[in-house]
């Protein structure tokens, strides 16, 4: 298609999250978040880098913003580390932490880059985990509200776009990576807690939406959801129903909350039948319904595939597996709900080395479907290819595979826009290389190479990859030259 669909004010940029990029985990008053603890454990178990230094953006932010400016960014999506603002989760604010984000935001504004802030990206203050279990306890909702109100007030003059909680759907699937879950709760008998903590997040999300609307003049707010459209493995009607069930439990269960203020019926009935449904207190659904979203931010990497699974007593319920090795095919399993659906590999799609299906058309499917159903503006706040990159002796990175991946996904967005979908931003993952949530720093996503390994942080020097120059041209031509 030759028609250029991207509106003039389209927000081209990229994303990161605090614990994956900042480092300075214990500097200037910051205390641990649960990710500092989880990643220390991953270092011991798998040799993946800790979050202590990550990409050291805390000390490199000026250089990083200059590189973003050079690429032509119109936006930068990043998250605020709760434990940098409130080292103990609540109580005393940490002025140095607040100053850091003011500096970063000022630097962005001076360079005409629109900051898009995420309030929560997996990094609950460790103090709250020690105090009462973090997201496992309803007290977190009040403490999140305290943190969110402070931050929204503090930055209200500079931030128009707010995203609330990153990827509730992924937190439910991979709860031990994204939350600190004590070992005794990981036995499969406590899976109701996945949906319970998600319910607390729904309350927190609604509170944050209301706060933005109350405090920020012209503020816009929405969740950032990890989203993968689900295809049936075959056109067998049983597989089609399985895909519908998976779509309900993995996707609609979240989007119906954000836009209709209700739990999706098919998903909820399944959860109730299996003792997995969240306990909902009086007034909760009214609060949820009051938190209006202005847009939905979407993190799209892959589509998923589902097939029918009989409830024959042989197959057991389980959640998504993970590939820790980075060798294709090493995935530890697929989510299974006997009598409802079983996830599986899509035989028609190639994958990354970590078994994520590569499916640009899935982006179009997702955008078309969500816009049809909810009619709200959509932002892409993540999309990208995790890959092993090589820094050559003359300090180049020839990441043509990433260019190929991203260009096809942008073309898919363009097609969706040409079909009438309102997309307002494209912020792929990630601006700079960073610490992956599941695979250390050797799995890279950035336009900017950060010279470090899992074992050795070196100086975290920055180098422009080939994709840097390619993206610069994409932005310069407003998506015309892919
Ligand atoms: C998204 C998260 O799920 O995917 C990011 O919001 C994450 O935090 C990204 O880094 C890629 O996943 P991973 O596991 O490869 O880092």
From TrEMBL:
Keywords: Glycosidase, Hydrolase
MF-aspect GO terms: beta-glucosidase activity
One family name in Pfam for this protein: Glyco_hydro_1
SUPFAM superfamilies assigned: (Trans)glycosidases
Listed Gene3D superfamilies: Glycosidases
A GO CC term assigned to this protein in UniProt: cytosol
BP terms from Gene Ontology: carbohydrate catabolic process
Family recorded in the similarity comment: Belongs to the glycosyl hydrolase 1 family.
Protein name (Swiss-Prot/TrEMBL): Glycoside hydrolase family 1 protein
Organism: Solobacterium moorei
